Amino acid sequence: MTGESAPPARRGLRARRGRPPWILLLPALVGIAFLALPLAGLLLRAPWTTMGARLTEPEVLSALWLSLSTATAATALSLLLGVPLAWLLARTGFPGRRLLRALVTVPLVIPPVVGGVALLLSLGRNGLIGRHLDAWFGLTLPFTTAAVVIAQVFVAMPFLVVSVEGALRGADRRYEEAAATLGADRTTVFARITLPAVLPGIGAGAALCWARALGEFGATITFAGNFPGTTQTMPLAVYMALQRDPEAAVVLSLILLLVSLAVLVGLRGRWA
Amino acid sequence: MNTRQPTGGPVLDARLRLTRGDFSLDVGLEVAPGEVLALLGPNGAGKSSALRALAGLLPLGGGHVRIDGRDRTTTPVEHRPVGMVFQDYLLFRHMSALDNVAFGPRCQGVPKAAARRRAAELLETMELGACARLRPDRLSGGQAQRVALARALAVRPRLLLLDEPMAALDAGTRVDVRVRLGRLLEGFAGAGVLVTHDPLDAMVLADRLAVVESGRVVQQGTPAEVARRPRTAYVARLVGLNLFRGSAEGTTVTVGGPKGAQPVLVRVHEPCTGEVLVAFPPRAVALYSERPHGSPRNMWRLTVEGVERFGDQVRVRLSGPAPLAADISPAALADLGLARGTAVWAGVKAAEVECYPV
Predict the structure, then answer these.
(1) How close, in Å, is residue B149 to chain A by CA atoms?
(2) Does the beta carbon of B119 lie under 8 angstroms from any beta carbon of chain A?
(3) Listing from the earlier edge strand, what are the strands of the sheet with B285-288?
């Protein structure tokens, strides 16, 4: 690129770094194909002609509404509990903190179905806590919409906690010290200094948490069951549809895909 | 400790002891009302640790912190009557300059309107009224420094701590900012403690210096005293003096040069006795290629170790029985034809040599 005919305006005089090596490029391309092809398949097999009618089916709409509302409620609850939990892990020292952190990440690694069983055993009608909830308050959680939210929180909150804890650890603690020298107690420091500083991390964590809650399947079907209108979220509806009407499953999948993509793209612009 | 003792005693009276790994800090500090004490020392000497300990940000291993006679050794950070200006100022990025300054009063329970009024007044006195609405990233270095100072003063502290307040500024603005900061510090009625590794900042901004080396105060005094009579090689280098230690008898000081070498005699102007330090500035040293005759000077045969520019002069580093630095003009350098390894005669008038007890 030395001739005068070369377009210099955009390329500037940056030193050339050469091609990316094949040993990295090839696996990366295969990785892209692996991730993109199934989505392409979904798009190609979609029954575009009947799409309009299928979208407005009441079952589809109720499942979509249930998914969106429960995932949002689960995210709100995760924020309420998870941000203070992340703060506890990142900003305080107490015996057993490492153990607690390991515990928090357990739902990330166990199969969601196992999580659902665990929830059933603890919060179910005969469960450790559920028994008392039933006896004292007449409260039964399993197979209700509340159970859907609980299952989602159980599975998705760790994403938020891990993300927010990372943000807290990355935040410059000297600003908190500066606030303390100005007379701010720990609550004030958290609310007025720490929280604004880690807001992007909280946003990213909430987005991850919401996406995970939206896709929740195993724990939900185990703990909340599969009742249209009350506990049948979109992933459950997709699974059910696949048994009797594969085309409907494709439509539901597409909707789920588009909704989650739209939300994540919207959030990335703001927070990532 | 040569502190002037005003009526009512010092604002700050502290003994700071702490250890971290191999490093141990043990310094005693006393600062009178309206006085600014500079902790001057090389990086890693423990100056910043001392400052953080005063603020309560670093736990003490021993000692005490008393402010206005009240023991504050275990008082939580947020309840100490202390204001601190941090090295990078640490202005809260999501708040305007005004809200940064109003933050402290708000935390102390001052109603919002009153806190903002106080902040606005403080910014006004620092000629920052026009910057009140700006976010910190829109401020210049000097402005950010004054906002940080205003923020620290807004809590009406008795003890003001400044951690390397000039370090984040570029060289071009330093002179101006230093003068302004000095004026603002003069108006502060409490005690000030300033940490710096720059002797110039210390000399201009502080009433008194405490030189800290390896966690200990090695010298204290007014800037003039420290500059004229350095006590350690580090201080001598900071203030740009040649320093020797020896024993005096009359007007002759015997300096034990490097190990095994012949002792060196330094003639001084005024007689003294016992263990002494002798100091003289590099510009008092004259260099000759031939030994001059009949001169009443100190005269040593030395070897050129290195030559470097120093302002409009040239600094010649010499080694030998009395290793020292000499400042000569570039013309003299050319005349003498000095290069590394050249042997020269170095002479200093007795009247130029300061001699003082260890």
Answers:
(1) 12
(2) no
(3) B285-288, B343-349, B297-310, B313-319, B324-328
Of A181, A188, A193, the CB nearest to B77: A181
Report the alpha-carbon distance of residue A223 to residue A147 in Å, rounded.
Answer: 7
Note the pLDDT tens digit of each residue in A21-73. Answer: 999 999 999 999 999 998 888 888 888 888 888 888 888 889 999 999 999 99
> How many whole angstroms separate alpha carbon B191 and alpha carbon B206?
11
B101 to chain A: nearest residue by CA?
Answer: A182
**Token match 């166990």: residue?**
A110
Residue among A172, A173, A182, A186 with most chain B CBs within 10 A, to mutate: A182
Phi, psi torsion values for A253, nearest 5 degrees: -60, -45
Per-residue model confidence as pLDDT tens digits over B208-264: 999 999 999 999 999 999 989 999 989 998 888 999 998 898 888 988 755 666 788
CB contact under 8 A, B78 and A181: yes
Contacts of B78 in chain A (CB under 8 A): 180-185
Binary contact (A181, B94; C-beta < 8 A): no
Other CB atoms within 10 Å distance of the CB of residue A84: 13
Position A12 scores a pLDDT of 66
CB contacts, 8 Å: A185 with chain B? 78, 107
Q: How many CA atoms lie within 13 A of B297 on its CB side?
A: 19
- What string of DSSP letters covers chain A? --STTS-HHHHTTPPP--PPPHHHHHHHHHHHHHHHHHHHHHHHHS-GGGHHHHHT-HHHHHHHHHHHHHHHHHHHHHHHHHHHHHHHHHH---TTHHHHHHHHHHHHHS-HHHHHHHHHHHHSTTSTTHHHIIIII----TTSHHHHHHHHHHHHHHHHHHHHHHHHHHS-HHHHHHHHHTT--HHHHIIIIIHHHHHHHHHHHHHHHHHHHHT--HHHHHHT---TTTT--HHHHHHHHHHH-HHHHHHHHHHHHHHHHHHHHHHHHHH-
| Partner-chain contact A183 B55, CB within 8 Å | no
Residue B160, classified by CB atoms within 10 Å of its CB into exposed (0-12), middle (13-18) or buried (19+), is buried
Q: Do A180 and B152 touch (CB under 8 A)?
A: no
B155 near B108, Cβ under 8 Å? yes
Q: Using the beta-carbon criterion (under 8 Å), do A182 and B94 form an inter-chain contact?
A: no
**Cβ–Cβ pairs < 8 A, chains A and B:** 57
Strands (E), chain B: 12-20, 23-31, 36-40, 62-67, 70-71, 82-85, 159-163, 191-196, 208-213, 216-221, 242-255, 264-280, 285-288, 297-310, 313-319, 324-328, 343-349, 354-357
Interface residue of B48, B75, B77, B155 to substitute, partner A, most A CBs within 10 Å: B77
Rounded-to-integer distance, Cα B259 and Cα A143, Å: 90
Q: Token match 């940056």: residue?
A: A14
- β-pair type (B62-67, B70-71): antiparallel
